[in-house]
Design brief:
With 344 residues, the protein is an alpha+beta fold. Helices cover 47% and strands 18% of the residues. The protein is built from 12 helices and 10 strands. The longest helix is centred in the C-terminal third of the chain and has 19 residues.
Length: 344
C-alpha cells in the first residue's frame, strides 16, 4: 500500500502517526500544516486525510475533527515508514550496567533487566526466563495446606521455580522430607529430563525402600514435571505504568483486560515462545494477537540466545498502541543482545 501512495500522502500520514505517538491526541489539518512546514492549505490536507481514512489507515474518534491512525495504519507505518532511532551512549551504559550478572543469579539479572526496560520505556517490561533444562542443585517438598504441597526446584545456576502439587490429605511432614531426600539423591547434577528417565528406569524392587505414601508423593512430582516443563518462567514488571496514559473509563477497561491477560501466563508464554520461530525483534500491534484483541496495546519483544546460538528466552515491553516504536525497538533489541552475551 505504501507504494500506491504518493509522496504527499506518505508525508501527511507519517506526520499524523508521529504527532499521535507524541501526544495521544487526534491530529487536525491545522496542526499538520504547521508540522509539514510546506504551503499546503488545510483543505488540501483534509482531502488527503479523507483518502487515508478510506484506505482504513486513519479514523476519527468520536466527533473530533482530527484523525488518529488505526491499527492497520500503525502496522503500515512500522513496516514501511518507520525510521528506527539509535540508543544514546547513556542508555547503552545503563542497559549494560543493569544486565551485568556479577554476583547475581541469572533470574535476578533478568529481573533487573526487565525493571530497567520498564523504566526506560515507560511501559510494562516482561521477560521469559530460560526453560529449566539445566542441572538441578536441590529439590524440596513443603507442606502448604491439607492436600497441597509446594515443590521447590533449584538449578545449579540459581534459577528457582515453585510449583503447587496435590498430595494425600493429612500427609505428615516426615513423608515430604523422605520424598525430598529420595529425589535429591537421584536428581542432583541432572536435568529434570535426565532425572525423570532415571527414576522411571529404576526397577520396582529398588523402590521398596519407600513406603506407599512417600512413593505417591514422588510419583506426583514426576507427573508434574512431565506435564508442565515446556514453558519457562514469566517475569512482568511495571504494569502500573500502563495506567499513566489512561484518560477515559473505556481506556481503563482495556487496561484491566490487559492485566487479566498478563495473569493468564500460559497465553503469555505461548506468545513469547512464538518469538522462537523468527530472529530479531517481533512487533505485535493491537488485535493482531488474540491476547491484546480488546486491550489496545502493542508488544515489542526479542528473543535472546545462549552460547550455542539457541533461543532460550525472550524479553520485551507492552504499552499502548501509540508506543514510541522508533525508540523502543532498538532498546529491546540491544537488551536482548546484552543478555545473550551475558548467558553465552
Amino acid at each position: 500500500m505504501i507504494t500506491e501512495m504518493n509522496q504527499r500522502s506518505r508525508d501527511i500520514f507519517r506526520q499524523i502517526v508521529e504527532a499521535y505517538v507524541e501526544t495521544g491526541e487526534p491530529v487536525g489539518s491545522r496542526t499538520l500544516s504547521r508540522r509539514l512546514g510546506i504551503s499546503l492549505s488545510p483543505a488540501t490536507i483534509r482531502n488527503v486525510m479523507a483518502d487515508l481514512e478510506e484506505l482504513g489507515l486513519l479514523k476519527a474518534p468520536h466527533t473530533s475533527a482530527g484523525r488518529v491512525p488505526t491499527e492497520v495504519g500503525l502496522r503500515l507505518f512500522v513496516n514501511g515508514l518507520l525510521e528506527v532511532g539509535d540508543l544514546s551512549e547513556d542508555e547503552r551504559v545503563s542497559i549494560d550496567a543493569q544486565c551485568a550478572a556479577s554476583g547475581r543469579s541469572l533470574p535476578e539479572a533478568l529481573e533487573e533487566a526487565t525493571t530497567m526496560l520498564s523504566g526506560l520505556s515507560s511501559c510494562a517490561g516482561l521477560v521469559m526466563a530460560p526453560k529449566t533444562d539445566r542441572p538441578l542443585k536441590h529439590i524440596e517438598f513443603v507442606n502448604l495446606q491439607p492436600g497441597r504441597a509446594l515443590v521447590v526446584l533449584v538449578t545449579e545456576d540459581g534459577l528457582v521455580e515453585n510449583r503447587v502439587v496435590e498430595v494425600p490429605m493429612g500427609i505428615p511432614s516426615s513423608v515430604l522430607q523422605m520424598a525430598s531426600n529420595y529425589l535429591n539423591a537421584r536428581v542432583v547434577g541432572r536435568t529434570l529430563a535426565e532425572a525423570r528417565t532415571r527414576l522411571l528406569a529404576e526397577a520396582e524392587e529398588q523402590r521398596t525402600q519407600l513406603d506407599e505414601l512417600t512413593r505417591r508423593v514422588v510419583d506426583t512430582g514426576m507427573a508434574t514435571w512431565a506435564g508442565s516443563r515446556n514453558n519457562g518462567v514469566l517475569i512482568v514488571r511495571g504494569q502500573a505504568k500502563l495506567l499513566d496514559d489512561v484518560s477515559a473509563l473505556s481506556d481503563l477497561e482495556r487496561i484491566r483486560s490487559l492485566f487479566e491477560a498478563l495473569e493468564t501466563r500460559d497465553a503469555m508464554m505461548r506468545l513469547l515462545e512464538a518469538t522462537g520461530s523468527a530472529e530479531g525483534v517481533q512487533i505485535f500491534i493491537g488485535a493482531e494477537n488474540n491476547l491484546f484483541s480488546h486491550a489496545g496495546c502493542s508488544l515489542i519483544v526479542s528473543p535472546y540466545t545462549n552460547g550455542k546460538d539457541q533461543i532460550v528466552g525472550a524479553i520485551g515491553v507492552i504499552g499502548p498502541t501509540r508506543i514510541n516504536y522508533a525508540r523502543i525497538i532498538p532498546m529491546v533489541d540491544y537488551t536482548a543482545k546484552v543478555i545473550s552475551r551475558m548467558i553465552g
